[in-house]
Give the backbone structure.
Amino acid sequence: MSEVVRVLVVDDEALVRHALRAFLSGDDRVTLVGEAADGTEVIDTAKVTKPDVILMDIKMTSVGGVEATRRILEWNPNCRVLALTTFTTEWRALEVLRAGACGYLIKNSTPAQIIDAIVAAHAGDRVVSPEVQERFVRAAVEAGDGQLSDVPALSDRERQIIELIAKGLTNAEIAEDLHYAEGTVKADIRHINQLWGVDNRLQIVLRATELGIISL
C-alpha cells in the first residue's frame, strides 16, 4: 500500500476547514494531521504535525498565503504547498508559485480532484486547475504573439531539462534523472535563459508553454 499523505489545512474560514476535514477523512490515501486558521500559525502547527502537503488559502487576515508559503519553505524546503483559493487570475497563481508553491487549485474543485492533487503534489508533480492553466496559456500566447518564428533551436537535452523544470525538479534531481553532472544542468539552464531572454525557472516554464514545448 502506498504511503499515506499527511495533510495540514490552512484557511481562515471555519466552514472551509470543516468541509475539507470531512472529505479528507473519507479517503485512505490521505490523513488530516492539523489545521491552522491563519498564516501566523503555519510554522508552529507544521512543527508539531509534520505534514507532507499543506493546503494553503491565499487571502487570509494578518499573514496571507503567499507569505505563509515563503515562511514554511524557508523552514522546510521539502514540504509541498498546494494553494487552494477562489482566485482564478493568472497573476495570483504566479505570485504563490513564485513563492514556492507546487500547485494552484480553485475551491470549486471536486473533493476527488483536491485529493488527487494532494497525492500528485506529494509525488513531486505540479498541479494547476484547468481554469488557471487556460489563463496561463492565453496570457503567454498573447505576450509572445508575432515572436515565435525567431525562437532559437534547443538541443534535445535542453528540452528534457525544461520538461523536468516544469515538473518542479531541482537541478540536482534533474541531473540524477538525466545522468549528467549538476554543473552541466546549470550550464544548460543558463544557456536557455540567454537564448530566450529570461531570468528564472518560472519564466522558462511560461515561455516553453507559449511555444508549445510543454503544457502546464
The beta strands are 5-10, 30-36, 53-56, 80-85, 103-106, 127-128. Residues 145-149 have pLDDT under 50 and may be disordered.
